[in-house]
Structures are given as structure tokens and as C-alpha cells.
Amino acid sequence: PDRDHAEPTDVFEKWKPEANPGPSVLGRRSYIDDILIIADTWDSICEKVEALLDACERWNLSISVVKSFWGHQKVEYLGHRVSADGLEANPKDLESLEKLPFPKTLRSMQSFLGSLNYYSRFIEDFAVYAAILYELREVDFYEMHHGKHEDRAAESDDRWTRARTAFDLLKAKLATTPILRHFDSDRQPVIVVYANKWAISAALVQEHDGMYWPVIFTSRTLKSNELNYGIVDKEVLALLRILDVCYTLLTNRSIKVLSRYSTLAWLLNASGFQGRLGRWAALLSEWTLEIRKCLKGEDDILGAIAASITPRAEVDEALIAIAPVKEPKRTIAMAPLTVELDEELLVVSFDGSARVKRSAGAYSAIVWKLPEWSIISAASEFADDLTVNEAEYRGLLLGFKLLSDQTGGEL
Fold first, then answer.
1. Which CATH number among 3.40.50.2300, 3.30.70.3270, 3.30.420.10, 3.40.50.1980 corresponds to the domain 345-407?
2. Where is 158: in which H helix or E strand?
């Protein structure tokens, strides 16, 4: 029907969408009821607004005139400032975050890190600096404030100092976040990768007026199995992460990658890898990458770098004060179980297994008598529709039953 003469339709009246709804009037999606309209000229923005109002009238939607703003060069949108120059972080509680004291509980620390995580794309090497804060546990906060043993107190004081340093650095970085330029499809994308012992980061930048300006920052802490990787392997992880995060921006483009190690270029050009190197090489094979090695003279190699991109050597120096101490998991010392010569005990052992193809499992239990380790009783059973965990659990229950028979119902 003619849209100009069509009756308004309730957007919730029909559950089935139109077969051919036509293109979006703005050419993109909006976040719930926060609609942002951008244009190069006044005439263009008026045309887009008119098309949007027509769509709202058709679907019986209303727009508040009081909450609408027109013709601004810079607007606040979802905690950001958006302009032709780029994207700026604009947290509503920035002043309170800057004055925030070091959290005294794990929940308060998690709340702080959650607030910063929303703006992590603006904070270069966010995960690198936040790594020691992510490692803190409730027991660490207790030991920091109530350490009883001198050796543990000294260790806690050192961790406290490193954590406070990282906390203050992150607050300062949030207050001085750079303007992220809008991605320009006509300019070559450049990726700067960085890795250290416990975290990786990467920055997508583009050249404007002879300077590299950031488009987005990505970073994350390393998993336990990744801590032993070589530095080149970690840089590959950083490269893979930013390629995944910025896939829609970078796909089918020629990308320049700046690395501190020439081995990264060798990885892309060599063949016949096994294990994780083979998987990484396969993932990177779909990209058109130009690897360039950068050393301490990074500024000379890259040309003029924007002040918002920290030279890698300075990052290494700054991280000395906040490096998290990687320790093995603490173990609780337990006294070994002992049995007297004249003492008689009953011990139960149990097990269970399941076969997925057969959708069935078996479980068994044995009751032993100590100290001679003689078998008192044993039993096994079979059941359908069991998982491995369920089979082992039934083996435990079967062991309890056998013990109960031997002890007259008391365990």
C-alpha cells in the first residue's frame, strides 16, 4: 500500500516482521531509544531526520522534543563524546573515580575494574596495568590489613605497594584518555603489538598528518598455560586478539604490523609448523600482513608518533613497579593418616565409568579392613543414561551402603 496513506501500525500488534521492510533510514542500528544522526551537511541531516520521523509515525512511536538536540558539533552518547575528530571517554563519575581511595574489599575492587573495563578501548595496555589487581583475592585483602606472620606481612606489604601503584596509574590513565580517531577506510591500518610476562596488548592506529593516532586499544592478561610462552608467541596472541576484535574493520585490507621481533615475520612466511604455531599460522594466513621490526629507536622508525601512544621501552620501565608476582597455588599441609598396630579400620574405595556411545555406565565399591588390607565386601552395578560424574557418584553411594551393612547402619 501507499505509505503516505497507510494507517499507523502498532509495532507490537504483529509478531511476524515484514517480508521486505526496506533499508534502514539511518543505514545502521541504534542503541534502544538513543538515536544518533550524523551527516556532513545541514540538508543531509534534515533529510535523515525527516525519514526517521516518517518511520516513527508509521510505527506509532513518539520522540521527546525536550530531550532532542540539533546541529551539535560534539554530542554526549552512551558515556562518550562523539565528534568529527573522534571518540572521547566521558564517564559521568570521573571526578569521584579520580578521588576514589584504594578499595578495602574484593567486591569494591571488582566494581572499580568493571567501571574501567567499559572504557578499556581508550586505555592503552589496560590489562597490562590491571593484571595485579585482577589477581587479588579476598584472602589478600585480609592479609594486607591483618597480616599476622612477619614473612607474610612483608609479602603483603610488597603486594599492597604494587597494587596501589597500579591502581593510581589506572586512575590517571582514565583521566587522560586520548581521543580515538574514527576508522578511515581510505587509510592503511597499522597495528602495534606488545607483550610482557603476564599480559598482552595491541593498538590499532592510522596515520593523520604524519602522525599515528589510535583507533582502538585491546589487551588481556595471559592464561596460566600461556605464561610460559616465548615473547614472540605472546605477540602473536596480541595480534590475533586485535584482528578478532576489529575483524569487521580490518577484513580484506592490507595491514602493517609493528613488532619488536623479526621472528613474527618469519612465522608468517615459514611453513610446516606443528601444534599451536601451525594453528596460528593457519589463522593468520587469511590476512594480508606486512611485519616491520621496531627496536628502541621506535620513534625514528615510525616517524612522528602521537603522544597518546606510549613508546614500548617506557612501558617496560613503568611496569617494573607494578609487576605481579606469579606464584604457584598455595597448598595446605596436612598430617599423614596413621593407623596404630592394634587399631582396626574400615576403608572404602569406589570408582565409576560411562560410555557415551552406549549411554550407560558402571560403578563399583570395595570395603577393606585395616591394617591387613583384607577385602570385607565388594559390589558393582550397571545402569543406563549415566554420565561419568553420575557413575562415580553412584559408586560413592554404593560404598556407603556396603559400609552401612558392616557397621549396622552407623558410619
1. 3.30.420.10
2. helix 150-175
> Which cell numbers hold the place of 323?
609487576
CB atoms within 10 A of CB 310: 16
Taking only Cα atoms into account, the Rg of the chain, rounded to an integer number of angstroms, comes to: 31
Sequence spans of domains, the chain: 1-71, 345-407
The Cα 143–Cα 125 span in angstroms is 28
Going residue by residue through the chain (411 aa), what tens digit of pLDDT does each one get? Answer: 455 555 655 555 555 666 666 677 777 777 777 888 888 888 988 998 998 888 888 888 888 888 888 888 888 877 778 888 888 877 766 677 777 888 888 888 888 888 777 777 777 777 777 888 888 888 777 777 665 544 444 455 677 888 888 888 888 887 777 778 889 989 999 998 888 887 888 889 998 887 888 898 888 888 888 888 888 888 899 999 999 999 999 999 999 998 877 777 777 776 667 778 888 888 888 899 888 877 554 544 443 343 345 555 555 555 555 555 554 445 556 667 776 777 788 889 999 998 867 778 899 999 988 878 899 999 999 988 888 888 999 999 999 999 888 876 555
3-state helix, strand, coil in the chain (%, to 5): 40, 20, 40
Model confidence pTM above 0.85: no
User: Considering only CA atoms, which of 388, 406, 390, 399 is closest in space to residue 349?
Assistant: 399
Angle at 162 between CA 321 and CA 175, to 5 degrees: 85
- Nine-digit cell string for 118: 567499559
Q: For residue 278, give Cα distances in angstroms to 222, 281, 289.
A: 20, 5, 17
- 393-409 burial, b at 16+ Cβ within 10 Å, e below that, comes to ebbeebbeebbeeeeee
> In 10 A of CB 250, how many CB atoms?
19
Residue 254: closest CA among 279, 291, 218: 291
Q: Where are the beta strands (DSSP E) in 178-293?
A: 190-195, 199-208, 211-221, 254-259, 288-293
CA distance 204 to 9: 45
